[in-house]
């Protein structure tokens, strides 16, 4: 006697949570990059305790976003496997991840503002630009909190993401955050470009810093603008999730890359210092002309000027070296 086939429930999640899964894979890879960069930072830098604690905090928050994302996927795909109604609601770990991402973003932006304040020599630029960056960062974080409150008011329904109020709040949050990073990047590029010098070594250092600054601003801004455009166009399709999960990772990665780049800059300046100290020079040599304006470019992403080697002219060393030639 033939038995009737048991009907099975087939739900294709490739267009929705399939995107979330691959977004999580990419963000996890980026977290691995953060871990490697963090390892190199603690192995090769001897910064102040406050800066080292700040880096540890950023790495901890980066790990937290990854853990919360994995817990959300576990809730959807494991605990609620076969329960399509669970897919209608946002999990509490996901909402928590949204807030933690906002914290990572504002901390990164405020750190960048503090670097501009540190190296700027013009009084106007030293205060106005960092304050503007700080105001934009706090405004963006405020709208992130407002978006979270709105999600709970709509009972965590994913369909509520397409409401106009939710679009406005999320749009203001992401738009202001992107504007903050763009302003910071442009301000730093203009400052570095204004450091005119006749010495090839200093020019190469400034070019290297410009490369890091532009890449940092470009990566973060693209992720934020990508999230904004994809969310506003199709909020319930979750195509914006890859951009969202990448934002906090890019902030941490670019911050650590900026800090770790100082080792490369130090090695370049140490080689130049050794060559200038062991070869005949005069009082008009580049070693004696190296000014504060040139050194200020190398203090980018550093918390103390004393961490960077300083070129000094020593007539006694020069006379000894010239007598040996």
Automatic annotation (TrEMBL):
Disordered: region residues: 306-325
Swiss-Prot/TrEMBL keywords: Membrane, Transmembrane, Transmembrane helix
Keyword presence, Transcription: no
Entries under InterPro entries matching the protein: DUF6534
Domain DUF6534 residue range list: 177-264
Pfam families given in the database record: DUF6534
The keyword Nucleotide-binding is assigned to this record: no
Top-level taxon: Eukaryota
Transmembrane segments: 20-42, 54-74, 94-112, 124-152, 172-193, 205-227, 239-259
Stated name of the protein: DUF6534 domain-containing protein
């Amino acid at each position: 006697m033939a038995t009737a086939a048991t009907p099975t429930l087939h739900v294709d999640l490739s267009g929705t949570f399939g995107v979330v899964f691959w977004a999580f894979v990419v963000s996890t890879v980026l977290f691995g990059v953060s871990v490697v960069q963090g390892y190199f930072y603690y192995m090769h830098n001897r910064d102040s305790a406050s800066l080292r604690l700040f880096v540890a905090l950023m790495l901890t928050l980066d790990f937290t976003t990854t853990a919360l994302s994995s817990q959300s996927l576990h809730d959807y795909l494991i605990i609620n496997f076969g329960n399509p109604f669970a897919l209608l609601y946002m999990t509490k770990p996901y909402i928590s991840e949204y807030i933690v991402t906002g914290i990572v973003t504002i901390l990164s932006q405020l750190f960048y503002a503090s670097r501009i304040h540190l190296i700027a020599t013009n009084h106007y630029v030293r205060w106005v630009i960092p304050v503007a960056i700080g105001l934009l960062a706090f405004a963006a974080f405020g709208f992130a909190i407002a978006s979270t409150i709105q999600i709970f008011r709509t009972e965590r329904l994913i369909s509520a993401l397409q409401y106009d109020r939710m679009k406005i709040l999320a749009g203001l949050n992401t738009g202001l955050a992107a504007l903050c990073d763009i302003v910071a990047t442009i301000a730093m590029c203009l400052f570095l470009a204004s450091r005119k010098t006749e010495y090839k070594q200093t020019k190469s250092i400034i070019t290297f810093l410009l490369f890091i600054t532009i890449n940092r601003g470009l990566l973060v801004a693209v992720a934020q603008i990508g999230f904004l455009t994809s969310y506003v166009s199709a909020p319930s399709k979750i195509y914006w999730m890859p951009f969202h999960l990448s934002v906090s990772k890019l902030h941490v990665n670019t911050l650590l890359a900026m800090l770790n780049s100082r080792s490369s800059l130090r090695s370049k300046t140490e080689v130049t210092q050794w060559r200038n100290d062991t070869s005949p020079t005069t009082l008009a040599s580049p070693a004696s002309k190296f000014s504060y304006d040139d050194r200020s470019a190398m203090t980018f992403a550093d918390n103390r000027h004393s961490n960077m080697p300083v070129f000094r002219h020593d007539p006694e060393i020069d006379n000894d070296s010239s007598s040996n030639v």
